[in-house]
């Protein structure tokens, strides 16, 4: 069975078009269509539901897509390793990161890495903590920049400390405080992202007893900041996410030095390709320049 058919299948799924897949792979559109049909015959399944205007991935196709991605990942790792044995680092890397990491840290990392390895293709995906973890486990990403809290079930490589802050509306009673303690938070209405907020609360309270009164649950920092700007509650946030806050939102420091550890989540560094190992190495160097762990 030719792996080029797997690649064709993956490109069609990810780009939603036989024509785009053909252009990327240097084949004709009928050639890609024949590859997909041949793959369906070999696997004895229907991968796509076809109509005049689009292709729709079947449930069987969705399951096999994940396996095809894994197979191609290992083939790429094999080829990269063989090339590395001859002094060449090639291939591609799929990086997942939060918006705050993309804005503050990743561009400089990519610039430095690309200077040393200009022929490596880099795919950067903005996603959530949960999205990074799920896509790493499904082998849709190679590495993810995440926090130690969220990297459960993955190998985690620490890079730097990201201080934790509290943001409040300028008209909130805490707005005049220079620093705050856990006791100051009693009686506050909290805005929180499920699970992530709990982890941050555990960090800031330490050994002290404290249960936040959560009035609103949200699923993004953008939504939380917008609600704070309307004085609907307070929100625990990291320093990385504090750039470009609205003028009526104030950032407060905690009395204690509280932070989360940011770093790289990866399935296994030991079994990763030489390309990925080099990216991790460069990430460690750039992290030392950015914030000292």
Automatic annotation (TrEMBL):
Domain of life here? Bacteria
Q: Which keywords belong to this entry?
A: DNA-binding, Transcription, Transcription regulation
Write down any Gene Ontology CC term.
cytosol
Name the Gene3D superfamilies on file. Answer: Periplasmic binding protein-like II, Winged helix-like DNA-binding domain superfamily/Winged helix DNA-binding domain
- Database matches in CDD domains: PBP2_LTTR_substrate
Q: Which GO terms describe its molecular function?
A: DNA binding; DNA-binding transcription factor activity
Q: What are the HTH lysR-type domain coordinates in residue numbering?
A: 1-58
Concerning InterPro entries, the annotation shows:
HTH-type_LysR_regulators, LysR_HTH_N, LysR_subst-bd, WH-like_DNA-bd_sf, WH_DNA-bd_sf
Family statement: Belongs to the LysR transcriptional regulatory family.
- Which PANTHER family does the record match to this protein? HTH-TYPE TRANSCRIPTIONAL REGULATOR CZCR, HTH-TYPE TRANSCRIPTIONAL REGULATOR YBHD
What name does UniProt use for this protein? LysR family transcriptional regulator
């Amino acid at each position: 069975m030719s792996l080029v058919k797997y690649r064709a299948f993956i490109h069609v799924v990810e780009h939603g078009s036989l024509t785009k897949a053909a252009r990327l792979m240097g084949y004709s559109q009928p050639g890609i269509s024949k590859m997909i049909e041949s793959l369906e015959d070999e696997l004895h399944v229907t991968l796509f539901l076809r109509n005049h205007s689009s292709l729709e991935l079947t449930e069987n196709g969705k399951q096999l897509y994940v396996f095809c991605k894994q197979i191609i990942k290992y083939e790429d790792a094999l080829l990269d390793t063989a090339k590395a044995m001859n002094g060449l680092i090639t291939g591609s890397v799929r990086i997942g990161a939060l918006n705050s990491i993309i804005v503050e840290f990743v561009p400089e990392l990519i610039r430095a890495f690309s200077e040393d390895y200009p022929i490596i293709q880099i795919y950067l995906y903005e996603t959530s903590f949960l999205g990074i973890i799920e896509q790493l486990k499904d082998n849709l990403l190679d590495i993810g920049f995440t926090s130690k809290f969220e990297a459960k079930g993955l190998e985690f490589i620490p890079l730097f400390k990201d201080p934790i802050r509290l943001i409040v509306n300028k008209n909130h009673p805490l707005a005049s405080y220079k620093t705050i303690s856990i006791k100051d938070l009693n009686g506050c209405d909290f805005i929180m992202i499920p699970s992530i907020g709990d982890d941050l609360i555990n960090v800031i309270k330490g050994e002290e007893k404290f249960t936040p009164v959560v009035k609103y649950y949200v699923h993004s920092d953008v939504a939380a900041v917008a609600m704070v700007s309307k004085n609907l509650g307070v929100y625990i946030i990291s320093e990385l996410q504090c750039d470009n806050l609205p003028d009526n939102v104030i950032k407060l420091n905690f009395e204690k030095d509280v932070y989360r550890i940011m770093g790289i989540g990866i399935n296994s560094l030991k079994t990763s390709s030489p390309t990925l190992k080099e990216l991790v190495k460069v990430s460690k160097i750039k992290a030392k320049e950015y914030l000292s762990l």
